[in-house]
## 1
Amino acid sequence: MTIILLGIVLFLANLFVGSVKIPFKEILDVLLKANKDNPLNTIILNYRLPQAVTALFAGSALAVSGLLMQTLFRNPLADPSMLGISSGASLGVGIVILLTGVISGSAVSSLGWWSTIGVSLAAFAGAVVVLFLILAFSSRTKNMTTLIIIGLMIAYIASSVTDILKFFSMKEDIHAFVIWGMGSFSNVGTERMTMLSISVIIGLLASFFLSKNLNVLLLGETYAENLGLNIKGNTLTIILISGYLTAIVTAYCGPIAFVGLAVPHIARFIFKSSDHRLLLPMTMLIGMDLALLCNVIARLPGFDGNLPINAVTAFIGAPIVIAVITKGNKVAK
Amino acid sequence: MQVLKTYYLSIGYANKIVASDIDISIDSGDLVALIGPNGAGKSTLFKTLSGHIKPVSGTIEINGENAENLTAKERAKMMSVVLTERPDDMFLTVCEIVASGRFPYLGMFGKLSGNDEKIVEESLEIIGIKHLSDRLFNTLSDGERQKVMIAKSIAQDTPIIFLDEPTAFLDYPSKIELFSILKRLATEQKKTIIFSSHDLELLLRYTDSLWVMGKQLPFIKGSCSELLENGKIQEYFNLQNIDNEYLTNRI
C-alpha cells in the first residue's frame, strides 16, 4: 500500500521537478482540464508525462526481468544483462550509430528524428538476435551454469565487436553512442510512450503465469523436475519473457543498469518472502518507484535534465539495497 | 500388483553402462535399502527409477504401466524424491516447501485449495514437525530439514518415495529417528520406500530388504540375514577379514 502511495507521489514529483518551475496547481490544471491554450501543455504533456510513464514501465519491466533471472539461475547477482541481451542491443545500436557514420560520411546524430527510431529498432534487433541465440542454446542444455557461461561469452563477443566498430568511427558518433549507453527515459515521445507501455504490460502479464513454476524452481532443478516441471520448456519461457522485457526497455531507453539487480532484493527483504505470487507484483511496484525516484533526481534543477539515468540508479539504489538488507538481516536473527 | 517392477534394466550413460540386468519387484509397504560402495551406481539407479535419466535398456513398470508412457505430471504423482541437495533460498518457510509437494495437483496460478492445505497440514503432522511450520527452512538443523523434505514427499502423495542417503548428515539419534519414521511410513501409510545409505549397522537392524550394488559385481537383493549368511555383504563391502560373528550378532 505504502509502495503504491509512494509511487503516486513520485509520479507527481516527476511532473513537478524540472528545469522550468511550474507550480503544482498549474500541473493539476494541465492534467485535469484539457485546456489547449495553456502554454505549459507542451512541457508537461509532451515532455514530463511521457518521461514519467517511461520511467514507470521501464522500471517495472527491468525489475521483473531481473527477478526472473535471479530465480532461474538461483543467483543473487543475476540481472537482465546476464545473458548478453543488453550487449546485443548495444551492438545493434553500435552498428547503426557507428557504422552509418563511417559509410555515409556524416554522423547519424545529424539525422534527427529518424535516428531515434533507428536506434530503437537497432537495439531491439540486436537484443532479439542474442535472445534467440540464447534460446537455441537453452533448448539443448539443462545445465544452468553452461547457459550463464554461454550468455557471458555472447556478451563478450558483442562488446568486442562494438569496440572494433568504435575504433573505426567518427568522434561525434562515438559520443552519441556513449550517451545512449548511459540510458535515458527522455527519448520516448508521447506516441511511442503508448507503444512502450503496451509492450511492457504484455510482458508483465505473461510473467504472472510463471509464478507457480518460479516458486517450485526455488527447491532446485531436480526437485522441480520430480514435481513434474518441464525444465527445458520452463527455462525457455522464463528467458523469453525476461529477454523480451529487457529488449523493449533497452530499445527505448538504452541499457539501464542496476534496477533489475537491486529491486528483487529490496522486494524480498521488505516482504521476507520468496513467494513469487507476492514478489512479482511487489517487484513491479518497487521497480516503478525506484525508476521514478532516480528520474526525479536526474532532473533536479541544476542538472538541466541531462544527467544520465545510469549515473543515478546505482548511486541512489545501492545505499537503499544495503540499508534494506542489513535491516532485514537483523530481523531474521 | 507390484508397485515398481523392472525387466532386464540396464542403467548408465551414453557410453558407460553402470549396471545391467537389474530385476526389481516391490510391493506397497515395502521398505528397501539400497547399499553399495561409492561409485557402484546407487545414484544412477535412483535417477533412472525416478525418471530423471532414461534407462540404457530394459523397462520400468509402475503400477503395471510402462514408465516411458507416463507424462511428467503422472510421474510426479507416482514417485517423489528426497535428495542430498537442499533448497538454499533465504526466505522459504517450512510450510511453503511442504506445500510445493502439491505442485502436480495445482491449477495455473498455483493456488492451494482447502484440500491441498489439509494435506500439507497432515503431512507436517505425520512427520511431527507441525510446530516448525512457520519457521524459515534455512534456520533449521540438518535433521529437521531432512524431515521437512520427507513431509514434502508425503504432501506429494505418491505411492513410491526415493530417498538418496537420507542419513548422511545426521547425528546418531537423528538417524535412528529417521529410520523409525521411514518404517512407520511403510507400515502405516503403505508407502513403498527405497533409500540408499552407508549406515550398514543401522540398516541391518532396521530394514528387512536390501538391494546391493558393487563395482563390476551383479546387482543382488535379499533379506539382511540371507545376505549376511551367504557372505554377499562381506564380499561386496570387502569385509571378508572382519569376524562374521561381529556382523551377525548385530542383528
## 2
Amino acid sequence: MSDTPTPDVEIDSRGAACPGPLMDLIGKVKDADSGTVIELLTSDEGSKNDVPEWLEEAGHELLRIEEEDDYWAIYIETT
Amino acid sequence: MTEEIVIVGGGSGGSILANRLTERLGPSIEDGDVRITLINDGEYQYYKPAYLYVPFGKKTVEEAKRPIADLIDRRVEFRVGRVTELDTDGKVVSLADGDELEYDHLVLATGSNLAPEKVPGLAEGGHHFYSPEGSQALREELADFEEGHLVLSVIGVPHMCPAAPLEFVFMADDWLRKRGLREDVEITYTYPIQRAHGLEEIAEWATPKLEERDINLETFFNVESVDPDDQVLETMEGNEMDYDLLVGIVPHEGSDLVSDAGLGDDGWVAVDNHTLEAEDAEDVYAIGDVADVPTSKAGSVAHYESTTIADRIASRVRGETPTAAYDGKTICFIETGMDEATFVDFDYQNGPTMREPSAPVHWAKLGYNEAYWLTARGLM
C-alpha cells in the first residue's frame, strides 16, 4: 500500500495478550530518538484503543492503523 | 551412553524440575543411563515472595533461603558454578571455571535480573523489595517514615510477582493506620498503562479498593528518570511527581546467556507457549521467569511449567512422543492488608475470578510461605 509508512523499528507483539503490545511499544519508545517511525504488529484487538490513548497522553503521533487478516499494524512516530 | 539433562538455574523452577525428573527417571538414573545436572551460581535458593513482608518487619531475609543441596534429590548432580556460554548447535554449556558440559536436553531456568540502571536516578533515589538487600534497606527507611508522600511506582514491566505492587500499597496503608501515621502519609500508586494492573479483572477489582483506602492512583505513568536530590519523578508523558519515599518496581531483564545464544530478546527465551521448547534451538527448554510466555513471572508458573517439562523430557528419554502441555496456569495470592488476602487463578484462556479478601486466605498465604520448601523439594 503506497500510504504505508516505512518503519525504522518493527515490534512484533502478535500472540501477546493485552497489555503486552502496549508495554512492548512503551519500552521501545523509551529508547527511541525523536522522529523514529515504529510499526507495532498486534493480534490483540484492544491495542486499537489502548495504543492511540497512550500516544495522545504521551504526545506521540499515530500515523496509521492497518487491518490485516488476523492482526493489526499500528504505525507511530515519536516526537 | 548416558543421556545428559542439564538444568541451568537452581530457583523454584530448576529445583522442582530436577526433583520431578528424578521421580520419573529414577531407575534410569540409578543405572547410569541418565544423568541430571543442576547448575547454579551459588549454594542457596532464595524464596523471593517473602521479601514483601520484610519492609513491614514481618519476616527476615535470612529465613527466606535454603541450601539447594538440601532441596534436591541426592541423585541429581548439583554444581555451583556460573554458566558463561551456551552453544546450542554443539549442545555444550561452558562454565566460568573452564569446564564444558555436553547436553542432550537443556533447560534454562535462570530467572529475572533487576536492572535499575535502565532508569537514570532510580538506583540512587528509589527503594524496592525485590532483593534481600533492597527489602532490608526499605525496612529501615519505612521504620522511620512518619510523614510525607509514599509513592509506589511500577516502572519496569514485566516484573516478578505482578500482584506485589498492589499488595505493598494495601499493606502499607494498613500498617501505617495501625501505627497511627496514616493521616500524615499520602500514598500514591502509579501504573504504566491506562488502568491499575495489566490484567483487566484485577484492575477493576483493585481500583475501588484503592479509592476506599485513600490511595491515589495514577495511570499512563511511565517513569523516565528520577531526580534523587529534589525527589522528583519525571515521566515519558511529560509529568512530574514529588515523593518523599519512592518504592520503585525496577525494570527486569533476562539473561545475557540467552541473548548471546540468540534465543530471544532482552534475555527472555522465545518459546512455544505450551511446550516451552525454544523457538530457535533444538532440545532447549525454558521455565520460570526467563521463559517469554504471556503470563505472570510468578513462582506458581515456574512450578507448573517444570511439571510439564519433566513429563516432556521423560517422554523423550523413553523414546515416546511428548504430550504434556502447559496451559498458562497461574496462581497468585494477593494481600489486601496486614490481616486479609485473596487469591486468583487464571490461564491462557480464562481470566481471573476475583474473590472477596478474607483472614483465612491471608493465613493460607503465610502458611504456604513456609510450606513452599516442600514444593521446592517436589513434594507439594
## 3
Amino acid sequence: MRWLRNKDSLYGFLVILPSLVLLAVFVYGFIFQTFYISLTDWGKDPAQALSANPQIRFIGFENYRELFTGFIDSRFRQDLFNSFFFTLFFVLGCLGVGLGLAILLDQGPKGEGFFRTIFLFPMSLSFIVTGTIWRWMLQPQGGVNQLPTLVGLPKGEFAWLTSRQQIWQVSWNDVPFITALLVGLVLVLITLSAFRRGEQRRGYIALGSATLLLLWAFTLGRSLQPLPYEELHGFNLALIGIILAAVWQMSGYTMALYLAGLRGIPEELREAARVDGASEWQLYWRVILPQLAPITLSAMMILGHISLKIFDLVFAMAGADNAPTDVPALLMYLTTFRANQIAKGAAIAMILLLLVAAVIVPYLYRQLKSEVRR
Amino acid sequence: MRKLWLTLILTLGSLAMAQSGKLEIFSWWAGDEGPALQALIDLYKKRYPNVEVINATVTGGAGVNAKAVLKTRMLGGDPPDSFQVHAGQELIGTWVVADRMEDLTALFNREGWMTKFPKGLIDLISYKGKIYSVPVNIHRSNVMWYVPARLREWGVQPPKTWAEFLTTCQTLKNKGLAAPLALGENWTQQHLWESVALGVLGAADYANLWTGKLRFTDPKAVAVWNTFGRVLDCANRDAAGLSWQQAVDRVLEGQAAFNIMGDWAAGYMTTTKGLKPGEGFGWAPAPSTAGVFMMLSDSFGLPKGVKNRANAINWLRLVGSKEGQDTFNPLKGSIAARTDSDPSKYNTYLQSAMRDWKSNRIVGSLVHGAVAPESFMSQFATVMEIYLSSRNAQAAANAAQAIANQVRLGQ
C-alpha cells in the first residue's frame, strides 16, 4: 500500500475509478452475463422465454453444439461463410482502392483537397443512408443493371442482392480440415520469417505448432465429421452488392490512413532511391510500400472488426429476412427477438465476440508491446 | 358524519379516476393503416373525453419492429395498456404461456360476444378454454387475384385446383408468358406455401399439422413441398427483390396472370390503384381451397400489471363492439370479426368476403401468426431456405419437424 502514500497516485486512482466501475459493470459484467445466458436453456421452453420470472436451467455448451452441428442451424453455418467472404473481400477491396487513391493524390494533382474530401465523404454518412441508396441502385430492374444500356449494350441480368447463386462450395464436414490446413500454413510462414530474422526460439515454437496442427489435420481432422451428411456452403454471389457498398463507403478511410503514411515518408528517401536509379515502379514497390506495412496492419484490424460486426448496412440493403446476404449479427437479432431463443442468440453473440477478439487482441498486444519498447 | 364525507369524496374521486387518466395503445398501424386506427381512437375519445390516448406506433410491416420493441418493454416491466397482436398462437405461444396476459373470458360473456364471433375464431384465440384477446378485424389469406379482361384475352379460366393451376400455367407459358404467377419477397413465398398446403392437405389435415396430429414428415405433408416446388416453377425468378405490392403490380401490368396474396391486396388495388373490384381486378379462393376461409386477425389484449386497467378494458369493449368494428374495418380494408356487422358500409370485395366468413370453414394462417407460435414461424424461414436452395422436399419436411419438436408445437 505504499502507492497510497503518494498523493498523486491516489488522486489518479480516484479519477479513473468511476470509469473503471462503469466499464466493469456495463462492459465486462454484461459480457459475462451474456456468456452465462448462452450456457442456459432460456427460450427453449416457450412458457419460460418471456415470463416475468423465467426459470432457467444450466445446460453447458449445448447451444454451441447445436449451432455447429445441429440439423436446423444450417443458416448459422452459412452465415459464418458469408462473414468470412465478406470480411476477406471487404478488407482487400478497401486496402486496394484506398492505396490506389492515396498514391494518385500523393502525386499532388490540382484540387487535391477537393478530391480528398470527396473520397473521404462517404465515411461520414450512416450505413443506413448509404444502404438505402445502394438498395435502390441494385434493384434487378433498374439502377446499375441499366448502366450498360447507356452505351448501347443489353441491360444487366444479375439479380444482385437476391441472387441465389453460390460458388466455391465446401462441405461443412471438411471445414475443420481446411481450417487446420490454413492455420498450419500461416504458422509455417511465421516459422520461415522467424528463422530468417534469427529468432530461433520463436521459430521452433511456431514450427512445433505447425507440425502438430498439420499432423492432426491429416489424421484425425480428416475423419472428424460434425454432421452425418454433406452440407454445402459457399460464397453467395448476393454478397457482391453488399461488399460493393461497404468498400465504397470505407475505402476513403483507408485512403486517408495511407495518405498520412505517404506524407510521413521523408522526401530524402525518394530522392536517394531515384539517385540510385530506381524506376517509379521500383520506388513504390521496394521503398514506399514496405514503410506502409504498419498502416496496412492497423487498417486491416479496424476494417476486420467492422466487417465482422456488420448489421445496419445489410439490414438497410437487403432486409433481415434475405437469407443469401445474412450475417451472424443479423441472425443473432432474429434468433433473440423474433424466435425468442434468447440463449441461442447469446451463444451467437459470444461466437461473434470471440471472432472479433481473435482479430483485435493480437493487434492490441502488438501495440502495447511496441509502446513499452519505446 | 366525517366518515360519510370521506367515503363520498373517495367514491366520487374513484369514479372520476375511472373516466380520466391515460390510455396507451401500442400497435404497428402507421402509414396506410393509420387513419383506421385514428378513427377508432376518435370514437374512444368521444365516449371517454377525459382520457388522454397515447398512440404508440412502431412502424414496420407485420410488426417486425414493433414486436421487438414490445418484448423489451414487457421484459422491462413497462407494458403498454393494450397492444396489437395477431390473434391466435402468436399471442398465445409468446405471451399467454408466459403468464403475461389477463383472461378475458368474463369480458366476452358480459358483452355477449360468445355468440357474435364465429366458433372457429373463438377456438383459434382460446388457450385451455380461456380467451385472451379481442379480435378487431379479419383478413383472408387464401385469395388468388387476377385481371378478368386479361384472362379472357389469354383464353383461360381461373383454375379451381392446383392441378388445374399447373396446366393453366403451362398453357400461359406456351403463349409466351414467362412467369404466370407473380411472387414477391421472402414472406410472400411462405404465404404461397400455406395456400398450397391448405389445398393439398385439405382443411382437416392442415389444422392437424398445427396440433401435432399430422407430422411434417408424413408422406401427405411431404407432398405439399413437391406441389409447392412445381408451383414455384411458374413464378418469376426475381421474386426476392419485390415487395408484395410490386408483385401485385406485375399482375395488373399483364406480366403475370395470377398472384396469391391476402386480401389487403384488394385494399391496395382499390385505394392506391383506383380499380373497381370485379372489373379492374377479380378474385377467387386459392386453388383447391374453395369453401375454406384461411383467416388472420389483429386483436388487442390486456397485459398483466398495466397502469390504466379500467381505461384499457373500455378500449377492449369498444374494439369488440359492432360500432367499433364497423368504424375501423371499412377504412382498414378488412371485414369485421363479428358476424352481425353492416354490409352496406363495405365494398364489393369485402361483402363477398363477409359472406364467406359466415358460411365457410375457418382455419388459421401460419405466416400471420394464427396457428403457430412466433418461435416456429420465424424459424420456418430457415425451412423455406433449405427447400429453396436444395429443392429437396424430404429435407425441408425433416427440418420443419425438427423445429416443431424444438418449439413444442401443438403441446
## 4
Amino acid sequence: MVSYMRELISMQDIKRSALYENNDRVLSRSKAEGILDEVVSHTSKKGRTRIVISSWWGGGQRWARNTPSMTADQREMTISIKRNINGGAGECETNQIDSISIKGAVGLAERYAIEGERFEPLDMATQIARWNYDGANVWSDATYNHLVTENGKSVNEIIGKSLRDSLLSAGYVGTCASTALVYDRDSWGRENIDWGSLTYANCSVTVRHPKGLGSAWAGSSSFDITRWDINSIAELSYEKCRASLNPVRIEPGRYITILEPQAVATLMQSLISSLSRTPPESKKYNSPIYSGFDSDMNRHLSKIGQKLVDDRINIYHDPNDPIVGTHRSDIVRRVDLIRKGILTEPYNTPVHELVELNSKEPAVRRLSFKVDGGDTPVDEMITSTRRGLVVARLEQPVTIDEHSLLQTGVTRDGIWLIENGKIAKAVKNFRWTESPLVAFNNIEDIGVSEPVFNEPLGRAPLVHNFHDSMKNIMVPAIRVRDFNFSSTIDSI
Amino acid sequence: MKSILIGIVLGVSSLMVAIEESVSQTRFQQSDTVPNYSDYKYIDECLTAVVRLTNKVTNKDTIRLKVMPDEVVKYGRECLSKVNIDTVSADAVNLRTWGQVLLAVNRDEDFRRLFKRIIDSSRTSAEWSGFKNVAFNLYAQAIPVRIDELNRLIDIAPPNQSPEASALYKLQMQVNVALIALSLGDTEFPKPIVTELLGKIKEGKAEDKEYFKGMSLQAFALLYEMLQDEGMDSLRISTVAYRNFLENIWTKLTDKKLDETNEAIGVNAPKVEGKFWYKNDWYYDEKGKIVLSSDVKPVASHIVPVPGKINALLFLSGGCHSLAAEATMYGRKIRSVSCWQSANMIKRLKQEFPDLEVTVISRTQGLFGGGPPLKHEEEAKEISHYFLGFFQIPGVQVISETEFIRIPGLDRRRIDMETKYQEEYSGIVLDASLILVDEYGKIFHNTVPFSIRDRRESIIRNKLKAVFSRINKQ
Amino acid sequence: MLKPLSRRRFVLGCSAAIGSAGYLRAEKLLANSGNRIEMDGIEDPRLKKIVQSSIDAAVAAGASYVDARLSHSESFQIDGQHPALKENMAFGVRVLAEGYWGFASSPEWSEEEAIRLGKAAVVQAKANVFGSSGNVRLSDMVNTESGHWLMPVKDDPFEMAFDEILDYNNALRDYIGRFNLLETAAILVEYCRISKVFGSSTGQYITQRLYKTGGKIFISLSNAANDKSRGTFHDISPAGLGFEHLRDQPLRERLRAFHHDLVASLDLPVTHIDVGRYDTLLSASGVADLINKTIGRPTEIDTALGFEANAGGVGFIDPYDMLGTYRLGSSLLNITGDRSAAGSVGRVRWDDEGVAPVKIDIIKDGIVANMQCNREGAQMIGDHFTKTGQVVQSHGCSHAPTALDVPMVHCMDLSMRSNQSDSSLDDLRGGMVKGIELHDPITLVDFQGITGAIIGNMFEIRNGKRVARYNNGNIIFRTPELWNNLIGLGGPGSVARFGLENRKGQPQQISSSSVFSVPAVFKELSLMRNG
C-alpha cells in the first residue's frame, strides 16, 4: 500500500515538473538562426567563416549492484567560430549565447587568424561544396519525449528480478537529442546553411554472479527508442549469465569460432577504418589496401576492384536505411565498400573525389555501416560444429600491425565451448590475436544481419563532425575457421 | 595577479548591473602586451619572434621591401645581444631562423662563421646541400641582397666530390649568383664568369654532351641578360632582329640553331583555341587608374594573339584554382603564389601599357575551387570570374575543354589529355607562364614558369617599352 | 549553383512571452546582454547566491542532500598552425532524494536556471522511486571548511601574451627540426584553466581555480634503409602547472637525449623472437602506464564494487575480501595516492564533494592497503575502516571534468616509492645479464585488470647492453604475478611524473591523473610473438 502511494505521488510530481523537461532542451532551427544572426553581425566580411551552433540534451539512468546509482539530465550547447583570413586560421568556441560573449569569441578567432602563422599571403576564394541527399529520418519524438520515470520503472523491474535470482545487475539506459546549424561563408560572400537534428536511445544491461562466477551482457541502440525493449535486453542478459556460470579453462589456440554480431562489429572496426582511397592512392602507405605504384600512369593504386574477403560479404553504408541510416545531410549517399568480397568503393575525401573522379558524390567516411547477412541461424551453426567456440563480445581491440590489420583484444561476457553440435560448457575468457582480413577470408557460415549496440558519441561530435554524429551498425553472426585465441585470461 | 573577469547572465532584476561592454569582453581578451623578447629563456624563441614580426611586415605584398623595418632591426639586435655566435651549439641552430635575423641586423660576418660551423657539421650530403641552399636563399632574399656573400658561398664545395664535379658545381653556383647580380643592375660582376663559361664550353664540346648542353644554356641565360641593352635595341627594330641577336649569341656558343633552347623567340605564336570566351569591362578613373567592373561577360571568340596588337598571354590553370580549396580546407600550403604574382604583375603592366592585349588562357579540369563538380561551361564561368573578377585581371579569358581518360575498372581516376593549346605550345608553356607576342604574331618573350619575380618584371617592362616604341614610331 | 541565403531574420527579444520556460532562452539572453555582470573572479559573492538558490530549490523539492557546482573552463590549444581557444561554462546540481542520486546540468549561470536545475535534479532522483527507497549513504565529512584557493602556478597562460606562447612553440619546433634522421615531428600543447565553485546543503561553500598544462611530442625517425623508429616524448605530459611546465624544464636536453635513444635503437639489428621467459626492464613511462591500468583503476572504489560492471568492467580487487590482506606484489611495491601533490594534474584543494584530499597508501609493502574512495564509497567499506581503527572518510577522489558532468570516482594522482639506492634506468639495465627491455611501451589490460599484454619498442639485453631490436613481440602477464616478480626499482633520481588519461562511466568521462614512477625490473616475464 505504502509503495503504491509513493509511486502515485512521485508520478504527480513528475508530471508537474515535466513542464521543465520538455521545453527547449535543444535549440530549434529558428532559435539557432537567431543566434547565428548575432554571430554573423560581429564577423567581418574578410576571408572565410564557419560557424557551428549546436545543442545537446542527454538524459540517462545508471544502475549497478542492483540499485539505481545515478539519474541525470544534462544540456549543453556550443557556438564554434572558425575564421580564415589571409591564409591564417583562428578558432574560438564558447557555450554562452549573449552578444558580448559572442562578440568576444568572434574577435579572438579573428585575432588568431590575423596574428597567427600564415600559409599564404592571399585571401583564398573558396566555393563551398554542397550536395543534397534526403537521408533517413533519425529524429524520433518518442525518444525525445521519453519520460525518465518510464526508465525508472523498467530499471526497478530488472533490479527486482535480479534480486529474486540472487544475481547482480548493472546497466544504463539513456536518451539524447542534438541539433546543429552549420553556416559557411567563403571569401566571395557566398553563404550556405545546414541544419541537422537527431535523437539517440541506448540501453545495455550486465548481469553478474555476485561472486564473479559468471557475467553476461546485452544491449541495443537506435535513434528510436521504440525499436528496442529494455525488458528483452535484460532477459537476454539473464539467460546468458546463467549459461556462463562457472567457466572452465581450455587451452588457447585456433578454434572454429562462431562470433555473435556484437563481436563481429568490434572485430570489423579496423577493417572499416582502413577502407579509404586517400591514402593509399595519394601516397605509398602502410595500408592493407595499398597495391603498389603504376609508373605508366604515374599513380599509386589501391586494391579497388580486387577481392579482399569472402565473396559472400557485402559491406555498405546506406543513408536511407531505416536502421543504419544517418540524418539528412548534404554529403551522404549509399557507399558499397565491399560487394561480393570485392573492394568496390573505399571511402574517399571530397577533394580526392572531385579532383580525381570529378564526382559530386564522394564516398565520405561514415561511422554507420551494414554487412549483409546470410541465412544460417546461430543455432544451426552450433549444431553443425563438432568442436568450436561461441563468442559474445570481443573487447579492446588494438591494432599491432597496420599492414595486416593484426589486432589483439579480449573476449568478454560470454564464451562457450561447442562439442558435437551442442554447447558443452562456458569457458574462461581469452586474449585473441587476429586480423579481420584473415577472419573474413575464413568464413564458413553467415547468420542473419542484425543491429548491434553502439555507445552514443557524447556531446562533442555534433560540433566537430556534424556529418557523422551517428553510429549504427548491422552485422551478422559468422562462423570462422582458425580464429586465434592466444592466451587465457582470468577476468570474468 | 589580475582577477579573472567572468560575465554572468542574470535573469533576476535585483542583480542587474549595466556595465561597459568593453570591460566584460576581457574573458576573451588575451593579453595585448608585447612580450619582452630579450627576456626569453632561449635565444631562438627570441629569434622566431623576430622572424614572425618580419613575416608579418614583409608578407603584405609580393614586392620585396627595400629597407628592413626598424622594428625588426631593433628586436633582432636585442635578441642577438645576449649570445655569442661562436659558442652556440651548431646542431641546435636552425640556420634559416638564425640567418634571417643575423642578416636583418647586418651581422653578416657572424652569419658566415655560424654557417661555416653548421655546414661542417653536416652528416649527409643531403643535409649539406640543404644547408647550402638555405644560406643561398637567405642571402638572395636578404634586404638588401648580399651579392658579395653569395659570391663567397661559391667557394664552399660539397665534400667528397671529384674535381670535375666540383668545378661544375662551382660554375653553376657562379651563374646563379651572376644572374642575381645582373638583376640588381651589376653588369661587371658576371663578366669573368661568362668568360670562364665560354672556355668550359669549348673544352666540353668534344666530350660530354649533356654537360656541354647544360653549360651552354647557362651561358646563354647569362649573356642574354648581360646584353639586355643590346637586345632591347634589336627589339626596337623588330622581333626578327631580336631573334637574330639571340641566335648570334647561341650560335657563338654552340654552333647550333636557337630552336634547341625552347626559347621560341621570333616564332609565330600558335593560335590559341578554346571553347569559352569571357571578358571583363574596364575603364580608367579620373586619376588614370584602371577600374574593373565586377561584371564578367561572355564574348564571342576571336583570334588570339590579336593580330596587329601587342599581346600578353597568361597561361593560368591547374593549381591556380582547382586545388585552392584543398589549401584552405586542410590548412596546407598551396602552390598558387606564382598565379597571384602573375596576376598582380599583369595588372601593373596593363596600367602602364593600356594598349596591351591581355588574354588569360586556362583549361577545364572538372572542378573549381573545391566546389561541386561542374560541366565545362559552368567551370569556365567560374574560372573566368576567378581571374577576371576576383584577381581583377583586365582582359579576355579563353578556356579549353580538357579531354581525359579514366583508369579502367572501379578506380576511374581521370588522367587528362593535352588540350589543343597545350599541344601547340608544348614545351614552352607551363602554368603561370607569360608569353608576349608582337603585332605580327611573333613571340618576343617567354618567361620561364614559376620565376616571375621583381627582376623579371623589369625585363618584361623593358621589352614592352621597346616593342611599343617601335609601334608608336610607325 | 549556389543561391544566396533567404533566411528569416529573427527579431531579437520579440518572443519574451516564451522566455519564462526552457533553458535555452536564446532571444532573451541576447536581448539581456547588457545585463551581464562583471564578476570579481570566481570568489565573487554574487555567485554564492546563485548556487544557494539551486540548493534551496532542491531542498524545497525534497532533497536530503544537495551539492551544486559551477565550472568555467578555458582551454587554449596550439600546434603552431591553428590556435584555438575554447570556453565552457557549466552549472550542475546533484541531489540525494529518497535515497537516490539525481543530477541536472546546463551551461547557463543564472538564478532562474539555478532554481530549475535544483528542482530538475530532484525529479531525476525521484524517478527511481518505485518500491523501496534508495540506500545511498555518505561518509561524514571530517572537515567542512569553506574557502578559496588558487592553484599556485608561476605563469598563468591566460595572463600571458599570445605571442609568447607562439614563439615558444615555434622555437621548439625549430629545435626538433634539426634532429638527425627526422622524418616527422608533431607538437601539440594544450593550456587549461578551470575555475570552480562548489556549494552544498551542509553550508559548505568553496571556490578554487585549477590549471592543467601539457601535451605530447611525437617524433618519427627513418634511416637510409627506410627503417623507422618512433616515440612519444612524455616529459610535457599534462601537469597541474602553468606555462612554467614547459619553460622551466630542461626540455631541450631531454628531447636531445630522447632523440639520441631513438637513433641508437635504429642502429641495432632486428632479431627474431625466442619465445620464453625473460627478466624484463620497463622504462618509467611504461611503469606509469602499468600502474595506472593494473593498480589505479582496480582500486577505484566504484570500479572495485561493480559500479562500472556495465562499462569498463569490475576491478579484480574485491575490497570486502582483499583489503589489508591481499598480496598484489613484492614488498618493493609501494603506491600512494594523493590529490594534493604539487605539479600533479589531478591536484585540487577540495574535490567535487568538498572534501580536502587525504594521502593514502594504496599498496603498502606489496599488500593492498586502501581503496580510492569518495564519500559514498568510503561509507560502503566503512566496516573495514572502523575495524582497522581508521576514520571512515573520503580520500577526495570525487571528480567531474566540468560541472556539466556527474561527479564520480576518478583515479588519484599515484606515486610509486623508489629504491633507496640511487639507480637509474642505465644502472638497472647494466645489472641485467640476459633479458629484454621495453622502452615507452603501452600496456593493454583486460576489463578486470587481472591480465594484460605489454607492447612497444622492445630490445634484447645482453650483459647490461641493448644488443638487438624485436619488431614483433609482446609480453603477456597476470597482474599479481607481474608485481610479485618485481625485483628492481630505479632510485629517487629516476622518478618521473606522467600525466595520463583515464576514461570511465556511462556516458563516458575523460579525466587526467598523474603517476610518479621509476623504471623497474621484473623477473621472468613471458615473451610472445605477435600473431
